[in-house]
Design brief:
Radius of gyration: 17 Å
Order of helices and strands: EHEHEHEHEHEHEHHHH
Oligomer: single chain
CATH architecture: 3-Layer(aba) Sandwich
Largest sheet: 7 strands, parallel
Number of strands: 7
Bound molecules: adenosine-5'-triphosphate, magnesium ion
Length: 237
């Protein structure tokens, strides 16, 4: 049961949006998926509880540092995705420490190498804590650039430069980026999945391209998780 945390102490980086798109994609492909909604605004819980989606995605809200472990121990899902708050906190530290993989979304238009460095340092600090108990335990992570220009849209020179700076730092990052698309806002507004938006003929740009983008990202992530998926023995520690 890989536990994937969406973490960036900077607010508005695309954590909740990416978490929902990824989770609904995996659920639709038949996986048993649970989102632990630890965003104080509870956007994914709201999506599930106040809408009409038929998605099999399970969402648990009210996550606090005091009940996080208890929830995780009870879950038996193929994927658990923790959507974290946009500030540093004890809850964020705990979630990172128990995760098998951390996705660090970074909004491409506001991307700044220092900001990325801060997000990574939080992960490395938690790694040191868990390594006190298991010296071999690593917390793998990758940066995910979000709100990048959709294919065909103009790419500004500033963005190109920022992306080059990130590449130069050798911080691991996903090849796939998440484009800025109206459809990704619409999933929250309509409280539906991308597929449901398409089935209902809701006009929000190129839904096939929006779906393909999430497919590409999820495929890359699942490949990434293969070698690090913990064994039962590992998880018991
Ligand atoms: N790929 C995208 N395309 C279009 N809009 C996006 C995309 N990703 C995020 N947004 C928009 O950016 C804003 C912030 O996104 P989101 O709420 O996902 O960030 P967050 O990191 O969860 O923020 P917080 O730290 O406040 O929880 C929202 O208005 C959302 O609709
Ligand atoms: Mg959020």
């Amino acid at each position: 049961m890989p536990i994937i945390a969406m973490s960036n102490p900077k607010g508005g980086a695309g954590k909740s949006t990416t978490a929902l798109l990824l989770a609904t994609y995996l659920a639709e492909r038949g996986a048993k998926v649970c989102v632990l909604d630890a965003d104080p605004n509870q956007p994914i819980l709201d999506w599930k509880e106040n809408g009409n989606t038929a998605s099999t995605l399970e969402v648990i809200g009210g996550i606090k540092e005091s009940n996080l472990m208890e929830h995780v121990e009870r879950l038996n899902h193929q994927f658990v995705i923790i959507d974290l708050e946009g500030t540093a906190s004890l809850l964020v530290s705990r979630a990172i420490a128990l995760s098998d993989f951390v996705i660090v979304p970074l909004q491409a238009s506001a991307v700044d190498v220092r900001q990325a460095g801060k997000a990574i340092r939080t992960i490395r600090d938690e790694e040191k804590v868990v390594q006190r108990y298991d010296a071999k335990r690593r917390i793998p992570y990758k940066i995910l650039l979000t709100r990048t220009p959709a294919p065909g849209a103009p790419v500004s020179s500033v963005q190109r430069q920022l992306e080059a700076e990130i590449t130069a730092t050798n911080i691991p990052r996903f090849r796939t980026t998440i484009a800025d698309r109206l459809a990704y806002k619409a999933v929250f507004v309509e409280r539906l999945t991308l597929t449901e938006l398409k089935d209902r003929a809701i006009k929000v740009g190129n839904l096939d391209a929006a779906y393909q983008n999430i497919h590409d990202f999820a495929t890359e992530l699942v490949e990434e998780l293969q070698p690090t998926t913990p064994t039962e023995e590992h998880r018991e520690r």
